[in-house]
Design a protein that fits this description.
alpha+beta; Serine Threonine Protein Phosphatase 5, Tetratricopeptide repeat; 3 domains; 59% helix; 6% strand
């Protein structure tokens, strides 16, 4: 009996964590294709076999930081025929770098995962377009699936942990710049062209802002680009300058700058909670209903949790979280935050019930209510809430699996009474 119940609990934990984890901004001159053809060479094997990365022991991986060029042996062989998938070439990372060197073209690495939502948008809306396919012939562009054995070493070498990430390399193989997320076709292509020409990169904004110290926009852009590229110490003076120059927030960039400085620089990169908390407090109190203000409030709670100050985290959540009743996502956010960090279940359940009065057809709210009730061992309530979610989304397989778990848990409880 105990073994079976333990298995049920483990299954439920894995299933309930899944949605939380998923819930995962002038033209260069290039040589012609004819001029860029490489000499006849033999077809090579996969990246893993070429580099030997797959043979690294787990112990060695933990102590040895792979660098991008470590994955490009000098004897890498290019295929005799350059096959294409639309605007992308069917090459391994090592082959793409060698082809970039041989053709004197920029290399574009598109890193993705099969489950990434914005990646699916790019695949559906950008990459099939004639514009992107044509542009693909001016560079060496490849897709890198970071979930595969060949793609993981590349993602690790470049420190990529969010998707999609597009990295633009010089023909030498050196990184110029990278950008993230979904962008429409014209913007996606132009960003790559700009980076290839050295325009609008973090270093470009840094130089321009240094020459125009009173320009709010340039200081903000320099700080933002440096911050999101994990160059936090360089970003600080530019973000602080942008905040200082716009004391009344006329540009609307002060909340963004405060959040970047507090979260992206002080917490995520420098772990300087003492410097982050006053900025988050200012943002939470002065802009409580904005996206950045709400993010700051949750960041404060999370920071207190990470410092084992649970009472302060609870106080922030209960006194500073402002939920707009018309926005169902905010009820969902509060509930999932409490589930993730295992706190305030009764209060979160109360919030969910308030939200469901306004948004009774939001299946995801019923799902979170069910999860909270289950954590509180209120199995009948959990089962009833999930049945309501299934009425709204009868084809949802996750809901069906969880409902079976909840029913079994209730039966187990009844059997032990």
């Amino acid at each position: 009996m105990r073994l079976r119940q333990s298995a049920i609990v483990r299954f439920w934990i894995l299933a309930s964590l899944l949605p939380l984890l998923m819930g995962c901004p002038s033209k260069t001159t290039q040589p012609s294709d004819e001029a860029s053809k490489s000499p006849k060479v033999k077809k090579t094997s996969s990246l893993a076999s070429v580099t030997g990365v797959s043979r690294l022991s787990s112990a060695r991986k933990a102590t040895w930081q792979v660098k991008p060029m470590d994955l490009v042996p000098e004897d890498t062989e290019l295929p005799a025929n350059m096959d294409r998938d639309g605007g992308f070439m069917k090459l391994s990372f090592a082959q793409a770098v060698m082809q970039g060197r041989a053709s004197k073209k920029n290399v574009v690495l598109y890193l993705f995962t099969p489950w990434c939502g914005p990646c699916k948008q790019l695949s559906a809306q950008v990459f099939p377009t004639p514009e992107f396919k044509t542009f693909g012939h001016t560079v060496v562009a490849i897709k890198v699936d970071a979930s595969t054995e060949e793609g993981k070493p590349v993602a690790e070498a470049y420190g990529v942990n969010s998707y999609p990430t597009t990295i633009v390399l010089a023909s030498s193989g050196d990184e110029i710049e990278r950008f993230f997320g979904f962008h429409p076709t014209a913007e996606y292509i132009q960003t790559i062209k700009d980076y290839a020409a050295g325009r609008n990169t973090a270093d470009d904004y840094k130089k321009r802002a240094a020459l125009a110290p009173d320009d709010i926009e340039l200081n903000f852009q320099a700080g933002r680009e440096l911050a999101i590229r994990k160059r936090g110490t360089e970003a600080i003076p530019f973000l602080e300058r942008a905040i200082e120059l716009d004391a009344t927030n006329k540009t609307g960039k002060v909340p963004r700058a405060l959040l970047l400085l507090a979260r992206t620089v002080y917490i995520e990169q420098l772990k300087a909670y003492d410097k982050a908390m006053p900025l988050l407090e200012r943002l939470s109190k002065n802009h409580p209903t904005t996206f950045h203000g709400k993010e700051a409030t949750y960041m404060m709670a999370r920071a207190y949790i990470e410092q084992n100050q649970m009472d302060k985290a609870k106080e922030v959540l209960l006194t500073q979280v402002v939920i707009n009743p018309s926005d169902a996502i905010q009820y969902h956010r509060f509930g999932t935050f409490c589930l993730r960090y295992r706190l305030l279940y009764p209060e979160a359940l109360e919030k969910l019930e308030e939200g469901l009065k306004v948004h009774p057809k939001a299946a995801y709210l019923w799902k979170v209510k069910a999860d909270l009730a289950f954590r509180m061992k209120r199995y009948d309530d959990a089962e009833g809430a999930l049945e309501k979610a299934m009425e709204l989304q009868p084809q949802n397989k996750t809901y069906k699996r969880l409902l079976d778990v909840y029913k079994n848990a209730r039966k187990q409880k009844e059997g032990t009474q």
